[in-house]
Protein backbone atom coordinates (compact mmCIF):
# COMPACT_ATOMS: atom_id res chain seq x y z
CA UNK A 1 0.00 0.00 0.00
CA UNK A 2 2.86 2.40 0.76
CA UNK A 3 5.05 1.34 -2.17
CA UNK A 4 5.69 4.49 -4.19
CA UNK A 5 7.78 2.83 -6.91
CA UNK A 6 6.49 2.91 -10.49
CA UNK A 7 4.62 -0.38 -11.13
CA UNK A 8 5.38 -2.15 -14.41
CA UNK A 9 3.55 -4.74 -16.50
CA UNK A 10 5.44 -6.45 -19.32
CA UNK A 11 3.47 -7.75 -22.31
CA UNK A 12 5.13 -10.66 -24.12
CA UNK A 13 3.90 -12.94 -26.88
CA UNK A 14 4.87 -14.19 -30.30
CA UNK A 15 4.43 -12.15 -33.47
CA UNK A 16 0.76 -11.57 -34.25
CA UNK A 17 -0.50 -12.88 -30.91
CA UNK A 18 -2.42 -9.67 -30.22
CA UNK A 19 -0.20 -7.63 -27.90
CA UNK A 20 -0.82 -4.33 -29.68
CA UNK A 21 -4.58 -4.91 -29.77
CA UNK A 22 -4.42 -5.52 -26.03
CA UNK A 23 -2.29 -2.43 -25.47
CA UNK A 24 -4.74 -0.26 -27.41
CA UNK A 25 -7.63 -1.53 -25.30
CA UNK A 26 -5.74 -0.80 -22.10
CA UNK A 27 -5.00 2.76 -23.18
CA UNK A 28 -8.64 3.33 -24.18
CA UNK A 29 -9.91 2.03 -20.84
CA UNK A 30 -7.14 2.86 -18.40
CA UNK A 31 -9.57 4.00 -15.66
CA UNK A 32 -7.92 7.36 -15.09
CA UNK A 33 -4.38 6.04 -14.77
CA UNK A 34 -1.53 8.13 -16.14
CA UNK A 35 0.21 5.51 -18.24
CA UNK A 36 3.64 5.53 -19.85
CA UNK A 37 4.33 3.03 -22.62
CA UNK A 38 7.55 1.55 -23.96
CA UNK A 39 7.07 -0.24 -27.27
CA UNK A 40 9.85 -2.41 -28.66
CA UNK A 41 10.05 -3.81 -32.16
CA UNK A 42 12.83 -5.40 -34.16
CA UNK A 43 12.06 -3.56 -37.42
CA UNK A 44 13.55 -0.30 -38.62
CA UNK A 45 10.11 1.33 -38.52
CA UNK A 46 8.29 0.64 -35.28
CA UNK A 47 4.96 -0.52 -36.67
CA UNK A 48 3.51 -1.41 -33.27
CA UNK A 49 4.00 2.09 -31.87
CA UNK A 50 2.63 3.60 -35.08
CA UNK A 51 -0.59 1.62 -34.62
CA UNK A 52 -0.88 2.87 -31.05
CA UNK A 53 -0.38 6.46 -32.18
CA UNK A 54 -3.08 6.12 -34.85
CA UNK A 55 -5.67 4.76 -32.44
CA UNK A 56 -4.80 6.54 -29.19
CA UNK A 57 -4.49 10.23 -28.55
CA UNK A 58 -1.58 10.45 -26.16
CA UNK A 59 -1.58 13.49 -23.92
CA UNK A 60 1.93 14.72 -23.20
CA UNK A 61 0.89 15.53 -19.68
CA UNK A 62 -0.43 12.04 -18.97
CA UNK A 63 1.16 9.46 -21.26
CA UNK A 64 4.48 9.05 -22.94
CA UNK A 65 5.31 6.74 -25.82
CA UNK A 66 8.93 5.65 -26.04
CA UNK A 67 9.90 4.02 -29.33
CA UNK A 68 12.83 1.60 -29.30
CA UNK A 69 13.95 0.44 -32.74
CA UNK A 70 16.80 -1.48 -34.38
CA UNK A 71 17.00 -4.05 -31.65
CA UNK A 72 15.30 -6.14 -29.04
CA UNK A 73 14.59 -5.32 -25.40
CA UNK A 74 16.15 -8.52 -24.21
CA UNK A 75 19.43 -8.17 -26.09
CA UNK A 76 20.99 -5.16 -27.84
CA UNK A 77 18.62 -2.61 -26.32
CA UNK A 78 18.69 -3.76 -22.71
CA UNK A 79 20.78 -0.78 -21.61
CA UNK A 80 18.38 1.55 -23.42
CA UNK A 81 15.47 -0.13 -21.66
CA UNK A 82 17.19 0.36 -18.33
CA UNK A 83 17.73 4.05 -19.00
CA UNK A 84 14.16 4.58 -20.22
CA UNK A 85 12.57 2.93 -17.19
CA UNK A 86 14.81 4.86 -14.81
CA UNK A 87 13.91 8.13 -16.51
CA UNK A 88 10.18 7.43 -16.47
CA UNK A 89 10.23 6.32 -12.83
CA UNK A 90 12.24 9.36 -11.73
CA UNK A 91 9.85 11.69 -13.60
CA UNK A 92 7.12 11.02 -11.05
CA UNK A 93 4.28 11.93 -13.46
CA UNK A 94 3.05 8.42 -14.20
CA UNK A 95 0.93 5.92 -12.29
CA UNK A 96 1.92 2.94 -14.37
CA UNK A 97 4.35 1.71 -17.03
CA UNK A 98 3.49 -0.80 -19.75
CA UNK A 99 6.24 -2.45 -21.76
CA UNK A 100 5.27 -4.22 -24.98
CA UNK A 101 8.26 -6.36 -25.83
CA UNK A 102 9.15 -7.64 -29.27
CA UNK A 103 7.39 -10.79 -30.47
CA UNK A 104 10.71 -12.63 -30.37
CA UNK A 105 11.76 -11.41 -26.92
CA UNK A 106 12.14 -13.78 -24.00
CA UNK A 107 10.51 -12.51 -20.78
CA UNK A 108 13.29 -13.53 -18.38
CA UNK A 109 15.97 -11.09 -19.63
CA UNK A 110 13.44 -8.25 -19.51
CA UNK A 111 12.62 -9.11 -15.91
CA UNK A 112 16.31 -9.37 -15.06
CA UNK A 113 16.70 -5.73 -16.09
CA UNK A 114 15.05 -4.84 -12.78
CA UNK A 115 17.88 -6.51 -10.84
CA UNK A 116 20.63 -4.39 -12.40
CA UNK A 117 22.72 -2.16 -10.17
CA UNK A 118 24.69 0.69 -11.73
CA UNK A 119 28.23 1.74 -10.89
CA UNK A 120 26.93 4.10 -8.21
CA UNK A 121 25.15 1.24 -6.45
CA UNK A 122 21.66 2.32 -7.53
CA UNK A 123 19.24 -0.45 -8.49
CA UNK A 124 16.34 0.00 -10.89
CA UNK A 125 14.19 -1.90 -8.37
CA UNK A 126 14.62 1.04 -5.97
CA UNK A 127 12.36 3.22 -8.12
CA UNK A 128 10.40 0.79 -10.33
CA UNK A 129 8.50 -2.36 -9.34
CA UNK A 130 7.97 -5.23 -11.76
CA UNK A 131 4.34 -6.08 -11.04
CA UNK A 132 3.11 -8.56 -13.66
CA UNK A 133 4.56 -10.60 -16.53
CA UNK A 134 1.82 -11.13 -19.11
CA UNK A 135 2.07 -13.47 -22.09
CA UNK A 136 -0.43 -13.25 -24.94
CA UNK A 137 -1.02 -16.55 -26.75
CA UNK A 138 -2.70 -16.69 -30.15
CA UNK A 139 -5.64 -19.01 -29.53
CA UNK A 140 -6.05 -19.63 -33.24
CA UNK A 141 -2.48 -20.42 -34.31
CA UNK A 142 -0.49 -21.30 -31.16
CA UNK A 143 -0.59 -25.08 -31.61
CA UNK A 144 0.32 -24.80 -35.29
CA UNK A 145 3.33 -22.56 -34.57
CA UNK A 146 4.37 -24.72 -31.60
CA UNK A 147 4.32 -27.97 -33.57
CA UNK A 148 5.91 -26.69 -36.76
CA UNK A 149 8.70 -24.71 -35.08
CA UNK A 150 11.36 -23.10 -37.24
CA UNK A 151 13.82 -20.23 -36.78
CA UNK A 152 12.64 -17.38 -34.57
CA UNK A 153 14.39 -14.64 -36.52
CA UNK A 154 13.44 -14.93 -40.17
CA UNK A 155 15.27 -11.65 -40.81
CA UNK A 156 18.10 -12.42 -38.37
CA UNK A 157 20.08 -15.48 -39.55
CA UNK A 158 22.32 -15.25 -36.48
CA UNK A 159 19.31 -15.96 -34.24
CA UNK A 160 19.43 -19.74 -33.82
CA UNK A 161 16.51 -20.03 -31.40
CA UNK A 162 13.49 -22.13 -32.36
CA UNK A 163 9.91 -20.83 -32.27
CA UNK A 164 8.76 -23.77 -30.16
CA UNK A 165 11.34 -23.00 -27.47
CA UNK A 166 10.40 -19.32 -27.47
CA UNK A 167 6.68 -20.02 -27.14
CA UNK A 168 7.33 -22.32 -24.17
CA UNK A 169 9.67 -19.78 -22.52
CA UNK A 170 7.05 -17.07 -22.83
CA UNK A 171 4.40 -19.26 -21.18
CA UNK A 172 6.58 -20.80 -18.47
CA UNK A 173 7.74 -17.41 -17.17
CA UNK A 174 4.31 -15.74 -17.14
CA UNK A 175 2.24 -14.63 -14.17
CA UNK A 176 -0.76 -14.21 -16.46
CA UNK A 177 -1.47 -15.93 -19.80
CA UNK A 178 -4.07 -14.35 -22.08
CA UNK A 179 -5.48 -16.55 -24.86
CA UNK A 180 -6.37 -14.09 -27.58
CA UNK A 181 -8.83 -14.50 -30.49
CA UNK A 182 -11.02 -16.71 -28.32
CA UNK A 183 -13.98 -15.75 -30.52
CA UNK A 184 -12.34 -17.47 -33.50
CA UNK A 185 -12.12 -20.95 -31.97
CA UNK A 186 -14.60 -23.47 -30.59
CA UNK A 187 -15.28 -23.88 -26.89
CA UNK A 188 -13.70 -27.35 -27.02
CA UNK A 189 -10.56 -26.01 -28.70
CA UNK A 190 -10.30 -23.24 -26.13
CA UNK A 191 -10.76 -25.63 -23.20
CA UNK A 192 -8.11 -28.00 -24.49
CA UNK A 193 -5.64 -25.20 -25.22
CA UNK A 194 -6.19 -23.89 -21.68
CA UNK A 195 -5.39 -27.35 -20.32
CA UNK A 196 -2.22 -27.53 -22.43
CA UNK A 197 -1.04 -24.15 -21.15
CA UNK A 198 -1.80 -25.20 -17.59
CA UNK A 199 0.45 -28.26 -18.06
CA UNK A 200 3.32 -25.90 -18.95
CA UNK A 201 2.68 -23.39 -16.16
CA UNK A 202 0.87 -24.65 -13.06
CA UNK A 203 0.47 -21.29 -11.32
CA UNK A 204 -0.31 -18.64 -13.95
CA UNK A 205 -3.71 -16.98 -14.16
CA UNK A 206 -5.22 -17.90 -17.54
CA UNK A 207 -7.89 -15.77 -19.27
CA UNK A 208 -9.51 -16.15 -22.68
CA UNK A 209 -9.97 -12.77 -24.40
CA UNK A 210 -11.35 -11.36 -27.64
CA UNK A 211 -10.33 -8.10 -29.32
CA UNK A 212 -7.98 -7.31 -26.43
CA UNK A 213 -10.72 -6.94 -23.82
CA UNK A 214 -9.53 -7.91 -20.34
CA UNK A 215 -10.24 -6.45 -16.88
CA UNK A 216 -7.34 -4.19 -15.95
CA UNK A 217 -7.07 -5.68 -12.48
CA UNK A 218 -6.18 -9.00 -14.13
CA UNK A 219 -2.95 -7.61 -15.58
CA UNK A 220 -2.14 -4.40 -13.68
CA UNK A 221 -1.43 -3.92 -9.98
CA UNK A 222 -1.78 -7.66 -9.43
CA UNK A 223 1.36 -7.97 -7.28
CA UNK A 224 1.89 -11.40 -8.81
CA UNK A 225 5.50 -11.14 -9.94
CA UNK A 226 8.38 -12.46 -7.90
CA UNK A 227 11.59 -14.07 -9.11
CA UNK A 228 11.15 -16.93 -6.66
CA UNK A 229 7.65 -17.64 -7.95
CA UNK A 230 8.75 -17.39 -11.57
CA UNK A 231 11.65 -19.77 -10.98
CA UNK A 232 9.22 -22.38 -9.64
CA UNK A 233 6.47 -21.84 -12.21
CA UNK A 234 7.40 -24.24 -15.04
CA UNK A 235 5.23 -27.32 -14.99
CA UNK A 236 8.16 -29.64 -15.67
CA UNK A 237 10.03 -28.37 -12.59
CA UNK A 238 7.05 -28.81 -10.30
CA UNK A 239 6.60 -32.35 -11.59
CA UNK A 240 10.26 -33.19 -10.93
CA UNK A 241 10.12 -31.70 -7.45
CA UNK A 242 6.95 -33.59 -6.61
CA UNK A 243 5.19 -30.33 -5.73
CA UNK A 244 2.31 -30.83 -8.11
CA UNK A 245 -0.66 -32.87 -6.97
CA UNK A 246 -1.95 -34.68 -10.07
CA UNK A 247 -5.52 -33.78 -10.92
CA UNK A 248 -7.89 -35.75 -13.08
CA UNK A 249 -6.36 -35.75 -16.54
CA UNK A 250 -8.24 -33.60 -19.02
CA UNK A 251 -7.91 -34.27 -22.73
CA UNK A 252 -5.41 -37.02 -21.92
CA UNK A 253 -2.85 -34.49 -20.65
CA UNK A 254 -0.51 -35.90 -18.05
CA UNK A 255 3.12 -36.26 -17.04
CA UNK A 256 5.61 -39.06 -16.53
CA UNK A 257 8.60 -38.63 -14.23
CA UNK A 258 11.49 -41.02 -14.81
CA UNK A 259 14.16 -41.56 -12.15
CA UNK A 260 16.90 -44.19 -12.15
CA UNK A 261 20.45 -44.50 -10.77
CA UNK A 262 22.08 -46.56 -13.55
CA UNK A 263 23.78 -44.80 -16.50
CA UNK A 264 22.31 -44.73 -19.98
CA UNK A 265 24.13 -46.53 -22.78
CA UNK A 266 25.16 -43.75 -25.22
CA UNK A 267 24.13 -45.62 -28.36
CA UNK A 268 20.74 -46.74 -27.10
CA UNK A 269 19.97 -43.30 -25.64
CA UNK A 270 20.90 -41.70 -28.95
CA UNK A 271 18.49 -43.99 -30.80
CA UNK A 272 15.73 -43.07 -28.36
CA UNK A 273 16.35 -39.33 -28.73
CA UNK A 274 16.56 -39.35 -32.53
CA UNK A 275 13.79 -41.85 -33.25
CA UNK A 276 10.18 -41.04 -34.08
CA UNK A 277 7.94 -40.36 -31.11
CA UNK A 278 4.95 -42.71 -31.33
CA UNK A 279 3.63 -42.55 -27.76
CA UNK A 280 0.87 -39.93 -27.82
CA UNK A 281 1.83 -36.29 -28.31
CA UNK A 282 4.85 -34.97 -26.43
CA UNK A 283 4.43 -31.35 -25.35
CA UNK A 284 7.44 -30.82 -23.11
CA UNK A 285 10.40 -32.85 -21.90
CA UNK A 286 13.08 -31.61 -19.55
CA UNK A 287 15.65 -32.88 -17.11
CA UNK A 288 19.08 -34.40 -16.57
CA UNK A 289 20.65 -37.66 -17.66
CA UNK A 290 23.73 -39.75 -16.87
CA UNK A 291 25.51 -41.02 -19.97
CA UNK A 292 28.04 -43.82 -19.45
CA UNK A 293 30.05 -42.49 -22.40
CA UNK A 294 30.69 -39.24 -20.50
CA UNK A 295 30.06 -40.56 -17.03
CA UNK A 296 31.51 -37.59 -15.09
CA UNK A 297 29.30 -35.00 -16.81
CA UNK A 298 25.69 -33.94 -16.29
CA UNK A 299 23.63 -34.37 -19.43
CA UNK A 300 20.69 -32.07 -20.12
CA UNK A 301 17.61 -32.67 -22.26
CA UNK A 302 15.09 -30.05 -23.34
CA UNK A 303 12.23 -30.62 -25.78
CA UNK A 304 9.56 -28.27 -27.08
CA UNK A 305 7.48 -28.80 -30.20
CA UNK A 306 9.31 -30.65 -32.94
CA UNK A 307 12.81 -30.17 -31.53
CA UNK A 308 14.69 -32.00 -28.80
CA UNK A 309 18.03 -30.67 -27.58
CA UNK A 310 20.70 -32.32 -25.50
CA UNK A 311 24.06 -31.28 -24.15
CA UNK A 312 26.22 -31.15 -21.02
CA UNK A 313 25.99 -28.57 -18.28
CA UNK A 314 28.76 -29.41 -15.82
CA UNK A 315 30.11 -32.22 -13.64
CA UNK A 316 28.34 -34.39 -11.14
CA UNK A 317 29.40 -33.51 -7.60
CA UNK A 318 30.43 -37.17 -7.26
CA UNK A 319 33.48 -36.44 -9.42
CA UNK A 320 34.52 -33.14 -7.85
CA UNK A 321 36.79 -32.87 -4.80
CA UNK A 322 35.24 -31.57 -1.60
CA UNK A 323 37.14 -28.30 -1.98
CA UNK A 324 34.88 -27.46 -4.96
CA UNK A 325 31.68 -28.06 -3.01
CA UNK A 326 29.63 -25.13 -1.69
CA UNK A 327 30.69 -23.97 1.76
CA UNK A 328 27.22 -23.12 3.08
CA UNK A 329 25.21 -25.86 4.75
CA UNK A 330 22.05 -25.13 2.79
CA UNK A 331 23.52 -25.86 -0.63
CA UNK A 332 25.61 -28.79 0.60
CA UNK A 333 22.49 -30.34 2.07
CA UNK A 334 20.76 -29.85 -1.27
CA UNK A 335 23.46 -32.00 -2.88
CA UNK A 336 23.27 -34.64 -0.14
CA UNK A 337 19.49 -34.83 -0.49
CA UNK A 338 20.10 -36.20 -4.00
CA UNK A 339 22.94 -38.47 -2.88
CA UNK A 340 22.81 -42.25 -3.01
CA UNK A 341 25.76 -44.58 -2.62
CA UNK A 342 27.64 -45.81 -4.55
CA UNK A 343 26.72 -43.45 -7.41
CA UNK A 344 26.52 -40.20 -5.43
CA UNK A 345 24.37 -37.59 -7.16
CA UNK A 346 24.60 -39.27 -10.61
CA UNK A 347 21.11 -40.09 -11.85
CA UNK A 348 18.44 -40.02 -14.52
CA UNK A 349 15.81 -37.39 -13.66
CA UNK A 350 13.50 -36.60 -16.55
CA UNK A 351 9.91 -35.41 -16.90
CA UNK A 352 7.69 -35.83 -19.96
CA UNK A 353 4.45 -33.85 -20.33
CA UNK A 354 2.02 -34.68 -23.10
CA UNK A 355 -1.27 -36.06 -24.33
CA UNK A 356 -2.09 -39.73 -24.45
CA UNK A 357 1.35 -40.83 -23.24
CA UNK A 358 1.40 -44.40 -21.94
CA UNK A 359 3.65 -44.24 -18.88
CA UNK A 360 4.54 -47.94 -18.86
CA UNK A 361 5.58 -47.85 -22.52
CA UNK A 362 7.74 -44.76 -21.99
CA UNK A 363 9.44 -46.17 -18.90
CA UNK A 364 10.12 -49.42 -20.76
CA UNK A 365 11.71 -47.49 -23.65
CA UNK A 366 13.95 -45.63 -21.21
CA UNK A 367 14.77 -48.78 -19.20
CA UNK A 368 16.11 -50.34 -22.41
CA UNK A 369 18.54 -47.41 -22.67
CA UNK A 370 20.04 -48.18 -19.23
CA UNK A 371 23.19 -50.25 -18.89
CA UNK A 372 22.60 -53.91 -18.22
CA UNK A 373 24.10 -55.53 -15.13
CA UNK A 374 26.89 -56.98 -17.28
CA UNK A 375 27.63 -53.58 -18.85
CA UNK A 376 27.74 -51.95 -15.41
CA UNK A 377 30.30 -54.55 -14.32
CA UNK A 378 32.62 -53.48 -17.17
CA UNK A 379 33.21 -50.23 -15.29
CA UNK A 380 33.93 -46.62 -16.32
CA UNK A 381 37.23 -47.43 -18.06
CA UNK A 382 35.33 -49.54 -20.57
CA UNK A 383 32.34 -47.20 -20.80
CA UNK A 384 34.47 -44.24 -21.83
CA UNK A 385 35.83 -46.24 -24.76
CA UNK A 386 32.42 -46.90 -26.30
CA UNK A 387 31.36 -44.88 -29.37
CA UNK A 388 29.31 -41.94 -28.18
CA UNK A 389 27.01 -40.55 -30.90
CA UNK A 390 25.70 -38.02 -28.36
CA UNK A 391 29.00 -36.17 -28.68
CA UNK A 392 30.62 -33.63 -26.41
CA UNK A 393 28.59 -30.56 -27.32
CA UNK A 394 24.97 -29.56 -27.73
CA UNK A 395 22.91 -31.17 -30.47
CA UNK A 396 19.42 -30.67 -31.86
CA UNK A 397 17.21 -33.36 -33.33
CA UNK A 398 13.86 -33.08 -35.07
CA UNK A 399 11.42 -35.57 -33.62
CA UNK A 400 8.48 -36.75 -35.68
CA UNK A 401 5.34 -37.07 -33.57
CA UNK A 402 3.45 -39.82 -35.33
CA UNK A 403 0.64 -40.47 -32.85
CA UNK A 404 -2.02 -37.78 -32.77
CA UNK A 405 -4.59 -37.61 -29.97
CA UNK A 406 -5.56 -33.95 -29.76
CA UNK A 407 -8.61 -32.32 -31.30
CA UNK A 408 -6.61 -29.12 -31.75
What does the model show?
It is a single chain. This protein is α/β, with parallel strands linked by helices. The chain is built from 14 helices and 13 strands. It has helices at residues 19-28, 47-55, 78-91, 107-112, 142-148, 163-172, 187-200, 227-232, 235-240, 266-274, 329-337, 359-369, 373-378, 380-383, and strands at residues 6-12, 35-40, 64-68, 96-100, 128-138, 176-180, 205-208, 253-260, 281-289, 297-304, 307-315, 348-355, 395-398. A 7-stranded parallel sheet has the order 3-2-4-1-5-6-7, sandwiched between helices. A 6-stranded antiparallel sheet has the order 8-12-9-10-11-13, with helices on both faces. Helix 2 links the parallel strand 2 (35-40) and strand 3 (64-68). Helix 5 packs across helix 6 and helix 10 (266-274) packs antiparallel against helix 12. It is globular and about 75 Å long. 40% of the residues are buried. The model is unreliable at 402-407 (pLDDT under 50).
Amino acid sequence: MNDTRLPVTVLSGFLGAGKTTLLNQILRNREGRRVAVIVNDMSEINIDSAEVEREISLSRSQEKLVEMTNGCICCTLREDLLDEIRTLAADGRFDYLLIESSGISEPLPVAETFTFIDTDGHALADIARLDTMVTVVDGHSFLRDYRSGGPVGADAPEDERDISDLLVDQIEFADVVLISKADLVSAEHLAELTALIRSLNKTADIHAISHGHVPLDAIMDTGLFSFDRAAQAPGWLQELQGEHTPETEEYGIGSVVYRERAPFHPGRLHRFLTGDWTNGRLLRAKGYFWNAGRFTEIGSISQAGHMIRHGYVGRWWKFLPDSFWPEDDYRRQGILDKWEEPVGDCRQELVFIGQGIDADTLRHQLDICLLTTAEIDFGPDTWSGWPDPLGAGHSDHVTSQVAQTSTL
